[in-house]
């Protein structure tokens, strides 16, 4: 790199240009060069794989992520201290393997690739506060999956991985084998990259296609521009190989051509955006509704959710998932809510507690026509004057109307009216700030006070907010989540 700068400097001097111009020329040259750098990593992915994820420049972006208040709580010593726990574990492993953890830190600070076929990636499975979760994921990475690191110390790196996964190391024909009686990881070094997989054939195939462009994923699919965006996370998923278990969202409810994903951290938040490209043109406008009414809705507990009543996802299933009871009881709730949705219009609004000693819940349906409350009675609900209560588990689900709204809650009508008047979503400054970045119409929106959830689960004081939205832009469904 010093040689490049010297060459450009001499060229600039011969042309009698300024220092500023020489610096500009260097920036332009490096910008043109950068696609080649990330292009090398994607070249390991065979064309028949279903998806890949790349985490780029992790050393640079880790600093940004760790400064965001919620992630700072997860990682910092004043919070859960995940960084300290991880470092302590690696120091112990480094001592036993006689390899400095710096070898791993250096590799983790660069670019990392994960790719696979034959599985559906649930994005929720990538996040856990348990370090052992990731160790088990590495041990069981799959026979058709590859994990690629950049390192100039492959042998030392392998020793550390063996220590982390508690596997024994052997070498056979330039291939490292890490194994015990249950699992095996195979690894091979190729042109500055260490390729790992749950099978030797997957490692060999990845290295083979690296030198045969016509058989590479990037040759068959339009991913070069995606890979070279200035983002921390980028990924591409064929068909329906991408999934998520977030409430109110079903990525596979509409047949997909492919998905793309990017993640960008700033000083104040992390934004992850998934784009779902459909196989055929669909009138998505019928799934959109105004979010303006959401800001006037009550906030009970630590989350607020709203979705178009006639959206593509199974809203009844999403709402029913908050209730616990015998299978027959939950089935009754699902059938009742499905019937209510049939006569609902606009948005369905849900608010309550995700965790805590007393988990409250309320769903608000705006009725287009009157709903026959006798249907609820036919499922065993009892009349308590101005409300119907359906027994479920050790509690009940209450149904009552307020104006054109039908309320479904695990509180009495009196309790609901008392707590629902305490706070509106418009009173939450963080929601107001985050929602300004989103369109006025969407398919679904979820907002949660992460600090409150952490405190109710762990008893630790924390700060953080998350806003998730599903909307449409030029025929593409976009899922956007921002954590701050």
Stretches where pLDDT is under 50 for at least 5 consecutive residues are 1-38
| Total DSSP helices | 17
Mean of pLDDT: 87
What is the helix fraction of residues, given as a range? 25-40%
What would you report as the Rg, rounded to the nearest angstrom? 26 Å
Q: Which class of secondary structure composition applies to the elements?
A: alpha+beta
Regarding quaternary structure, how should these chains be classified?
A: single chain
Largest sheet: 20 strands, antiparallel
Strand content: 25-35%
Distance between the termini: 37 Å
Dominant shape: elongated
What is the number of E strands? 24
Give the arrangement of secondary structure elements.
Layout: H1 2-14, H2 19-42, E1 51-55, H3 58-67, H4 69-75, H5 82-97, H6 102-108, E2 112-116, E3 121-122, H7 131-139, E4 145-150, H8 154-165, E5 168-172, E6 175-179, E7 184-190, E8 193-197, H9 200-210, H10 217-220, H11 224-227, E9 233-238, E10 242-243, E11 256-265, E12 270-278, E13 289-290, E14 303-308, H12 315-320, H13 327-342, E15 344-352, E16 361-367, H14 374-378, E17 382-383, E18 388-392, E19 395-402, E20 405-409, H15 413-420, H16 429-435, E21 441-442, E22 444-449, H17 450-458, E23 465-473, E24 476-483
Parallel strand pairs: 3-10
Antiparallel strand pairs: 1-2, 1-9, 2-4, 4-8, 5-6, 6-7, 7-8, 9-11, 11-12, 12-24, 13-21, 14-15, 14-22, 15-16, 16-20, 17-18, 18-19, 19-20, 22-23, 23-24
Helix pairs in contact: 1-2, 5-8
